Amino acid sequence: MATLELQDLHLHGRSYTWSNERANPTLVRLDRVLVSLDWDTLFPNAHLRGLGSETSDHCALLLQTNLAQMRKPRFHFEVFWPKCEDYDEFIAQAWKRPTVACDPLARLDLMLRNLVRQLQSWSEKRIGQIKT
């Protein structure tokens, strides 16, 4: 993967693609979609989703590439953000915001989603439109 500069496309909706279907199952992500940097540039809003797996021990993967109008652009962390004077304090405050989830993974997911929204808002106010 590294030699060919391929990256693993994020799988939405589930963490695994195969199960041994036992009472205490083994759950593994065997199936993947690898894309080149050029492909990712052509399809920045691509969405990979795992579908149901009732008829197989593998789940089908659905890759959608025509979601440009329906989806927000993906979050991109800017390397220079930590160099900003108020960054550390901002991150500490954003991370402390309360969440209502009891499950640790759901709580982490909510915290990260909140942090992304907060960072995007902070970046727009503090830095502005960097691309323009």
Please explain how this structure is put together.
The chain folds into two domains: 59 residues, no CATH class; 46 residues, no CATH class. Helix content is 29%, strand content 15%. The chain is built from three helices and seven strands; from the N terminus they run E-E-E-E-E-H-E-E-H-H. A three-stranded mixed sheet has the order 2-6-7, with no helix packed on it. Helix 2 runs antiparallel to helix 3. It is globular and about 55 Å long. The two termini are 33 Å apart.
Keywords:
7 strands; alpha+beta; 132 residues; 2 domains; 29% helix
Topology:
Layout lengths: L5 E3 L2 E2 L5 E2 L7 E2 L5 E3 H6 L4 E4 L10 E4 L22 H9 L8 H23 L6
Helix pairs in contact: 2-3
**Count of DSSP strands:** 7
Low-confidence stretches: none
The fraction of residues in strands falls at 15-25%
Tally of DSSP helical segments: 3
Largest sheet entry: 3 strands, mixed
Radius of gyration, CA atoms, in whole angstroms: 18 Å
Q: Write the element-wise H/E pattern from the N-terminal end onward.
A: EEEEEHEEHH
Précis, in short:
This protein has 132 residues and is α+β, with helices and mostly antiparallel strands. The protein is 29% helix and 15% strand. It has 3 helices and 7 strands.
